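Annex B, item 7. Sequence and structure tokens for protein A, then protein B.
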Amino acid sequence: MSMEFALNSRHATVFQNKNGVREMESMSYHEEGPRTWHRLLYPSTRPSLARWAPIPLRLIVGYGFMEHGFAKAARGFDAFPAILSAIGLPAPHLLGWLTITVEILGGLAVLLGALVPLASIPMAIVLLTAIFTVHLPYGFSSIKLQAITAAGAQFGPPGYETDLLYLACLLTLVLGGSGPLSIDRFLAKRPSGRT
């Protein structure tokens, strides 16, 4: 037994198998305008909107890195290197200032969409170093609510979740591009001087 039905320009053939269960045999879709379910659910079918997707990633990653760099620098010239020394990293002053520089300048590069593939390399190194030297022993979760006291919420040490999110965002920007309103896009559209 077979029956056909049509629903909003979609066509399907349904039949009843040996066990009496209805199954769909074939289905075809005929897109008839911009408001179909497929266009609403999948941004890749909305190229006019999908091209803007990198901008929120650039804003949060760029600002986040810059904020962390400025916070380290604001504590004084020796505060962050002292932390690196306490966890046993070699050349703590050199690594401390390299980290602060990468966070501020790399964050600015991502924020502006400038040379993102190049800037992402040292930024990923900073994140991987943070994962393996600080966050890994505390597990995945970055938010560990310990208690609520009169002074407010008390949290435990953060895990590596946020570092992985930053790495995923950087990888997405490297693979997918910086998007519109970026220096990378401007440089790509600029005509080369070669003939």
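Protein B:
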Amino acid sequence: MTPSPASPRTSLTSRTTAAFTAFTLFTIPRQRTECGGIDWYARELGWPVRAEPPELVTGTHFDALRLPAAAGLPLLARTRHAGPALRAGSDVWLLIAEGAAAEVPGLLQWLEWGTLATELGLRAVGAGGRVPAPVPGAPYPREAAWVRPPLPGREGERALPALGIGGRGEAPDLVRLVGAAATECHRALLRRTHAAAGAATAFAADQPLAFS
């Protein structure tokens, strides 16, 4: 019997999954051991840090965007217009300028993503929030790890995505970053929806027909 060809949807899903798997395996750097421990953040960057569990405090030197890794990793693969980024578990965190988190809900509304804000899984973390802190030598993927590490020194903060025309000096534009992040979150949402629909269809097809 000649095997039937795979459907276009199945082929597309397989290619997308393969590409995403390759990206997560080969472009996430292992934690650097020369950073000097968790106190490296306070010593080199002046960032407040909590030791147990290792966390960076937002709202004093930077804020953050939190989004699913299924959206964050493709975003980082497609654009260089982003600041430092780390992965922790199923999430990716993008560091943005201090105070920028307060602008994100309004930007999502202005970019016409407001009605889907909850479903997208895109969150802004500002004053009083916490971001997982990658610890030198911690095994990946059990612990957090930098995808794009921060630059040493306070000049790194001036390169964080900020609100303004073209960003703030050399900083990436926050509007562009939020728009790209929302788009990737929507793509990830559609992939999950299509995968769930395909699984439900396959399950229904496997059930025996009942005749009365």
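Comment on protein B: The longest helix spans residues 174-206.
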